[in-house]
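Q: Structure tokens for this one, please.
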Amino acid sequence: MSRIGKKPVLIPDGVTVRIDSGSISIKGKHGDLSLTYHPKVTVTFDSAAKQVDVTRPDDFRDSKALHGLTRSLINNMVTGVVKPFEQKLEIQGVGYQAQLKGKILELQVGYANVVKLPVPLSVICTLPDSTHIVLTSPDKQAVGQFAAVIRKVRPPEPYKGKGIRYDGERVRRKAGKAFAGAGAG
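A: Here is the predicted structure, written as tokens:
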């Protein structure tokens, strides 16, 4: 059995679960999420024990993978509606900054034009200052995807470290030409 898949997903107080044919909806104080799961797996909700169980019909490789995946997705949904997921980004570079105008995130990161990115509906974007971006949402996939889109606008470069990086991300720095030739003379 899948080690992750056989664990039940515990449902905390204040979270409601509804299972229809082929989909599960989870509602909590921070939002509601739904998932259409693969027909090979079976999802059941035990209201007495307040837990969701995921089972599979056979032990084929793809069934095992879907078993663990479905359980993880449901667990992330429950976690997200209780406490939203958060992703922080940091902008480094002279003159590099971000602005939020309505639901449009504007990035000035060394290009001739300002890069404008529409913020997804399920994601809340806040700017504590012009060089930090905080994304929150009950949907883990939406937060991670939008953070990756923002980072891809100007990934951190290895020589000066300028660019957009995740908070706490370490960038491997390279010496560059000036330092490489200094010891050879």
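A few notes: The radius of gyration is 22 Å. The helical segments are 61-82, 140-153, 177-180.
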